[in-house]
Each structure stands twice: as C-alpha cells, then as structure tokens.
Amino acid sequence: MTINRLAQEYKQQYEALSAKIDGLRPLLYVYTGEDLYLLRKRIKVYYDMACECKRISDMLTHYYDDEEAQNDRLN
Asked: Which of 3, 12, 46, 70 has CA 20 to 30 A from 19's CA?
C-alpha cells in the first residue's frame, strides 16, 4: 500500500465519521437527560476520531512535500 493510498483511506474514514456525526446531530433536539448526555459523548468521540483521521490524511498527503522543497533549495 502506498502512502497516497493510505492517505485516501484515512480521508474516507474522515468522511464516513463526518456523515455519522451529521446523522446524529438532529437527535440533539429530541433527546433529553441521560440520553442527551450519552449522545453528546458519542458525537464528541466521533468528532475526535474524524479530526485525527483528517490530520493523518493531510500529513500523509504532504509527506514528501518537505523533502521536495528541501531538494529544490539545494539545487
């Protein structure tokens, strides 16, 4: 598996988690009490996971950028 393919996998996971969050968000207006608390907790976990997937995807996508910029400065 190449770095670009791995970056794409992380991006797909980010999009899937974002869609899951978007699907749960309307329930915030319906739930109350402990159910609301648990829903917010679940959304927070998904949000943290999505942010991490996005960060890793961006890092892998630009993995060789620093190396290429450094080579350009040397030439």
From this structure: 3
